[in-house]
Amino acid sequence: MSPAAPPLAVTMGEPAGIGGEIALQAWMARDQAVPPFVLIDDAERLRTIATRLGWAVPVLEVPDPRAAAEMFAAALPVLHRPFAPHPVPGQPDPDAGPAVVAAIETAVALVRDGLASAVVTNPIHKKTLYDTGFGFPGHTEFLASLAGPTVRPVMMLASPQLRVVPVTVHVSLLRAIEALRTDDIVAVGEITARALREDFGIARPRLAVAGLNPHAGEGGEMGDEDTAVVAPAVTALQVRGIDAVGPLPPDTLFTPRARPGYDAALCMYHDQALIPLKALDFDGGVNVTLGLPFVRTSPDHGTAFDLAGTGRASPASLIAALRLADTLARRRATPAGA
Q: Is residue 95 located within the same domain as residue 160?
């Protein structure tokens, strides 16, 4: 009998947010094709949440995450990382910042050591981490730093209906326009096409490249960025053998008629990508970091401080992130052609 596959490593996220609650709910939905996971968190904090909300979740501390797969059916396995004080729901405390960061570092180390198959991160509160000296814009950049100096991370939001990849991410719209470069579009497109082939199993990925301006610039009448910056990137991707088209008018790129024509949309800035994805499938959307030497997914929502402590937060996006992480990790672990 072959040994059980390593579990997924799930981080605590912002402890004043909904991360603990949706992780508990994900375990309660384990009979709905939720893959085994080990949660890196304070076990006593989780017991307190479950008791307060009236959820019968046995929380079991495990010294070794490899035991998680075998015991997952009976209890929520937790790699106990105590910290104090525990923040009040909805009231982030910078004192918890080091534990949040350490959980992410631990999850990456587990995957590197073969003790976990993928990293699934619960949402963090960036402002709280910034106040503790966290020197990265967010999860994506921090994970890239843990992966190595040559890694270029790319953020994809994926759902059964749509995959989107922003070229510029967590910067202002003005800064995004100023920072947009042909070479960056090409690099992001190459990483996206490779991930679609290797991780998503799409033999010949099709990329739709969004224009920056209304109507993709209308031939220069609404800005020349599309002809001067975006169009040359599309040509360069085509020269590299990638099936890319564009720049395409953003206002029609995400219609029901257009979406079946591509496997991922390359977008020029954050909201151009995330608004259509979240409008189409907020609960089923998953944040996937491409370009890493390990699989990482996350829910596509934030900490939801307004829902923290109520038990009303939906675990759907976390469950989708768990399922996708398991699928991608299994594909990576399967030799090509097997």
A: no
| Same domain flag for 137 and 216 | no
CATH of the domain at 162: 3.40.718.10
Helix (H) or strand (E) holding 199: none
Amino acid at 271: D
Q: pLDDT truncated to tens, each residue of the chain (338 aa)?
A: 345 679 999 999 999 999 999 999 999 999 999 999 999 999 999 999 999 999 999 999 998 898 888 899 999 999 999 998 899 999 999 999 999 999 999 999 999 999 999 999 999 998 888 988 888 888 888 998 998 888 899 999 999 999 999 999 988 999 999 999 999 999 999 999 999 999 999 999 999 999 999 998 888 888 899 999 999 999 999 999 999 999 999 999 999 999 999 999 999 999 999 999 999 998 889 999 999 999 999 998 999 999 999 999 999 999 999 999 999 999 988 855 44
Query: What does the DSSP 8-state code read for residue 335?
Result: P
Q: Report d(CA 99, CA 42) in Å as an integer.
A: 9
pTM attached to this predicted model: 0.92
Q: Show the tokens assigned to 137.
A: 């814009």
Tokens 């949402």 locate to: 123
Regarding whether 227 and 163 lie in a shared domain, the answer is yes
Same structural domain, 8 and 147 = yes
User: Does 138 share its domain with 239?
Assistant: no
Q: How far is CA 117 from CA 9, 33, 243, 298, 327, in A?
A: 7, 17, 31, 14, 10
Q: Which residues contact 72 (CB under 8 A, 6 or more apart)?
A: 7, 27, 30, 36, 37
**Structural domain boundaries enclosing 59:** 1-151+305-338
Q: How many domains does the chain have?
A: 2
Distance CA 63, CA 224 (A): 58
The per-residue b/e assignment along 118-147, b for 16 or more CB within 10 angstroms, e otherwise, is: bbbbbbbbbebbeeeebebeebbebbbebb
